[in-house]
Amino acid sequence: MCSFYAKLERLKGCGERIVSRLERWIGLYVSVVLLLIMMPAVSVAMPEAEALRKQLEKYLAATPQESGLSALQRFYSDRDYQPVWLQSGSTSVLHDIALEFIENAEAEGLDSHDYQLQNLRQLRLDGYSVVPYELEFRTTRALLMLAEDLRLGQLSAEDVDPDWHIPQPLFDPVIFLLEAVASDHFQQSLYDLLPKIPSYQLLKQALAKYRDLVARQVTWTRIPAFFDIRPNTSHAVIPLVRARIAEAFHTHEIVEYNLPLTQSKNYDDDLVNAIKTFQAQHGLIADGIIGRNTRRVLNMTPTEKVQQLRLNMERLRWLPRNLGERYLLVNIAGFQLAAVKHNQQVLNTRIIVGQYYRSTPSFSSNISHLVLNPYWNIPASIARKDLLPKQQKDPTFFSTQGIKVFQGYDYNEASIDPDTIDWLAIKNGFPYVLRQEPGVKNALGTIKFILPNPFSIYLHDTPTKSLFNKDIRTFSSGCIRLENPVALAGFVMEGHSTQTELTALINTGKTVTVNLPEPLPTYVVYLTTWVDNQRKIHYSPDIYGRDKRVLSLVPW
User: Fold this and answer.
1) Domains of the chain by range and CATH?
2) Which residues are catalytic?
């Protein structure tokens, strides 16, 4: 019996081995069949990849002087040397999109020649078989360059503008393009490179108009030098001024510029109104007086306007793409501050910025808190250069201005009576510390907005309101003075403190620190073309010569 069961177990084991062997044979058969099915694709793909790799090596060796070659190499290496733009012996739909995007570079204030547009068009017409894969490589190289120029700016901010201290974000054009071509929304990915700030699109529209004028070699009426012309007087150049305003109407379509052309020498009310509008548009006081500054902007050429617009569109590309849902845009050159909420300017106020030799830099920070009825801890350089000469001239100056003198920075110690100091004996350096008390004479006014930065710059009120009526408002030592600080404080503290509540705190006369519930992004920039809350474009003078400096470094 035992022998019977033993034989049965051996037969069972034998059957299991047969089944196991059958399974292995079936698995092997399936693998062979699948391999045979896939072989045509592999046999095509692998030689094509190898062919592209070899052609890329030749291309790189033949064009060592061209920029962006390492990025090109990395792009195809990461794609296992598979082509993007050339498929099945012809250009793909993606290439149509890519070429159209490169053609649009001019509209973005760039030069399509930098991206070999004409060369790409010619290669496409000739057929890429003339030089295998050259169209493929040159298209990729052009897009990598253009993507970086649109995302970060064509120029390096720190190289062309030493006063620009807003860090540019990291961006890898290779990773961007790899992801873009692999996505289902390639075209949208390309256009997402552009700045989203609304003013960029409006500057872009203006650039198209001026570039058209330059292309058609349009010239504008030039106004010769003369003494100031005041409203309701007569002057021989008035017909020329009227002609120039008519030209401005054709460009801007501002209704105030739509005047009949006459040879009258009378500076009448309609022309005065047009000049006031023109002055406001160009960052001048709208007083209707045609003086040196007004004549200068009247005589700007279409080419100069193109340069100005291109440069400021470039500066907007230097900014982060996400500025925040609520932020402040402080325009040094335009002497304007805009409070922005959900891409809409909800508050504009005039500002005063640093003098030429104490120019306000471009930087970004976050307002962290406000100080109501602030003390002014006077910087040593201002104490020595600006205030000491006034005290030496008038021994009562410090006392009448509420400025106290300290031996050091411990303000809890007793102050020194300024009458006990021989101010005329101070020749070099300044051995004291000055602080101005809160009050109507305090240089910081009633509110100080603190935003940490390495330049010790902040936004503040000022008792000298008359200076806001000047054309060129470069009167500070670098800090930014505000025409309407209470309204700005209302925006900054929106949802937490009203203007009425803040005014009540100010009226107590006590120094109060008010912390923001969350920091408010603030961008201090230098824009000589900018857009107001009515979506109108303004042009400002190059007060610090930063436009001139950049333009001297580029072939625009």
Assistant:
1) 69-195 (no CATH), 220-300 (1.10.101.10), 324-551 (2.40.440.10)
2) 460, 479
